[in-house]
Amino acid sequence: MPSRRRTLLKVIILGDSGVGKTSLMNQYVNKKFSNQYKATIGADFLTKEVQFEDRLFTLQIWDTAGQERFQSLGVAFYRGADCCVLVYDVNSVKSFDSLNNWREEFLIQASPSDPENFPFVLIGNKVDVDGGNSRVVSEKKAKAWCASKGNIPYFETSAKEGTNVEEAFQCIAKNALKSGEEEELYLPDTIDVGTSNQQRSSGCEC
């Protein structure tokens, strides 16, 4: 059998409380939606195995509390992230206006080696609410913000109905893969000392 190449990719989801971060993650990983989610306390994560071409990798998706008192989770939480997903509610101007703060907070805490080119993805969630009639942030405004930040990919989703969720996370996975290639783990059929050292030094023990 050929050696399998497997990569662990860490994805952080940030945004104000109530924008649907937990719902998006659960819709993508479990294909489920619930109105009963309680506010996330601190942080939680789900994993999903994804295959691109001959590559098998695990997305480790971290969901964060949107309340400001939990923003001090700090370096350990942000460290090693391969992609950051910023989420806002298209029916809430406040959640959109908070995006700059979330982005800056991430760059400060994560301290990526190349902050100018670190992959972000923006999601405008809850497009299903009131048939779109209560929407207050336009697609044009969101895309302009993305353009001002280096052409961040943008998706409009409904976690409730599953609209565009799969497409958004496929883009997230691809962007994470680009930045996470240096942390690839090789899992050959026989383990030798060199491979074990490589695994220990890969920085993937998240």
From TrEMBL:
SUPFAM superfamilies: P-loop containing nucleoside triphosphate hydrolases. InterPro entries: P-loop_NTPase, Small_GTP-bd, Small_GTPase. Transmembrane segments: none annotated. One of its GO terms (molecular function) is GTPase activity. It is a lipid-anchor. Keywords: GTP-binding, Lipoprotein, Membrane, Methylation, Nucleotide-binding, Prenylation, Protein transport, Transport. The keyword Nucleotide-binding applies. It comes from the Eukaryota. GO terms for biological process: intracellular protein transport; late endosome to vacuole transport; vacuole organization. Belongs to the small GTPase superfamily. Rab family. This is Ras-related protein Rab7. It comes from Eutrema salsugineum.
